[in-house]
Amino acid sequence: MTASHSRLTLNPGRFFDPDPAIRRVAREIYHETSQLPLVCPHGHVDPRLLATNDPFPEPTALILQPDHYILRMLYSRGVGLEQLGVPTRDGSGVERDPRRIWSTFARHYYLLRGTPTRVWLDHELAEVFGVRTRLDADSADAVYDEITEKLASPEFRPRALFDRFRIDALVTTDSAADSLEHHQAIRESGWKGRVLPCFRPDAVFQIAAPGWLEAIAALGDAASTPISDYATFIRVLEDRREFFKTMGATATDHAVVEPYTARLEHDEAAIVFERALAGSATVADQRAFEAHLLMEMARMSVADGLVMQLHAGSFRDHNTPLAERFGPNVGGDIPVTTEYTRNLRPLLNAYGADPRFALIVFTLDESTYSRELAPLAGHYPAVRLGPPWWFHDSIEGMMRFRQRTTETAGIYNTVGFNDDTRAFCSIPARHDLARRVDANYLGGLVARHVIEPSDAREMARALAYELPKEAYRL
């Protein structure tokens, strides 16, 4: 492990290629993009933070517990989630002393060496909180106290950090039934920070899942419309999308295991919906209904202009006992092989050339980058490629993405970067890493005389700032 109280320093040339020709150009490119505002078009920060602007309680709740990257790594090495203070569904006992939880985290901090999580955390500690001591078992208390002291000051309130991070826009992810009360409170507060919702109706699409009837009831309550048939369901979805638009939303988001799309006849969809209301929908019913609803979401996007995001390929809650004890989002999701060419063909044949439609596709299956996704984005006007997602928003993952998609799709059929995080204070670290990796990739193209330095500077600015604003209609 690291030596006690060793100094935490960030090398200004970190992540750049050791080749001096590439490194020199990469530094120059990064220098021009490093101070651009942050565009955060997809993430999971709780809007309540910015609505109330209450002080963050202490470092454990702020840094450790919202970050499933940390939770899954420590769990994989035998650290129980109980020791990390993750609440159980049944309310049974877990560690509640935040200092002890932080100490457990610090003792195992070495496990994150070589991972993007360690890169983000070191940046967060050094640049956001000004910590100059490397975190380990011996320094745990001192670092905890230093961060706690700073969190008590006005400069570390959520809105002050939002402004300090130079966030141009931050988009949350909100269920179809969400009242968006926190977004309304932000609007009414007079604060100028731009925090926007994103419409995510996954819970009401999964008709064979436990809790679906409750999700449908909540959707009906939010719309003040009891949902007793398929036609009403579709009308309520359209109305809710319109409500989200009035609150500033520019996009929807859909998470699926497979990106299967196929349209049902109206009567077929109505019959499947009736079975779901009766509690007898099957897994096959859900697969067909989700495929149909993705088609409906695309149709609605053509009409209302909301950008459609599709996140495919995550087997959710793979660790059933863990999910039953702690619930979702605790690191038990695993990627699966994913096919796009055949699965998306019905949707793209219907809407892929419509200038009113925009589809941003994400994957956890890197094998599809050059084989499927880059060719799809390099052909259909509506398709853009989302950045490397989840397990791949790392140094090497982002490089692989650029290397395998640029020659077919270019960079202008991609959407730059999004941080996709619940951990608010990690946002600048994630963007900084992405800007460094892109600068390094472009520096390599300059060094090999594939592009000119002036091209590289324009491309870097596009990737860091212009493409996400354009793609998400921000």
What is the secondary structure topology, with strand pairs?
Elements: H1 20-33, E1 38-40, H2 48-52, H3 59-64, H4 68-76, H5 98-107, H6 116-128, H7 140-151, H8 158-164, E2 167-171, E3 174-175, H9 181-189, E4 195-196, E5 199-200, H10 202-205, H11 212-223, H12 230-246, E6 251-256, H13 266-277, H14 283-304, E7 307-312, E8 314-315, H15 320-326, E9 334-335, H16 345-351, E10 359-363, H17 368-377, E11 383-385, H18 395-409, H19 427-447, H20 453-471
Parallel strand pairs: 1-2, 2-4, 3-5, 6-7, 7-10, 10-11
Antiparallel strand pairs: 8-9
Would you write up a description of this structure?
This protein is α/β, with parallel strands linked by helices and 474 residues long. Helix content is 49%, strand content 8%. The chain has 20 helices and eleven strands. Strands 6-7-10-11 form a four-stranded parallel β-sheet, covered by helices on one side. Strands 1-2-4 form a three-stranded parallel β-sheet. The chain has a two-stranded parallel sheet with strand order 3-5. It is globular. The mean pLDDT is 96.
The biggest beta sheet reads: 4 strands, parallel
Strand composition percent = 5-15%
Name given to the CATH homologous superfamily of the largest domain? Metal-dependent hydrolases
Biggest sheet strand line-up: 6-7-10-11
Helix content: 40-55%
DSSP strand count: 11
* Number of helical elements: 20
Query: What's the number of structural domains?
Result: 2
CATH architecture of the largest domain: Alpha-Beta Barrel
Mean pLDDT: 96
Q: Which structural class matches the secondary elements?
A: alpha/beta
**Name of the top-level CATH class of the largest domain:** Alpha Beta
Radius of gyration: 23 Å
Which ranges are low-confidence, i.e. pLDDT below 50, for 5 or more consecutive residues? none
Looking at the structure, what is the overall shape?
Answer: globular
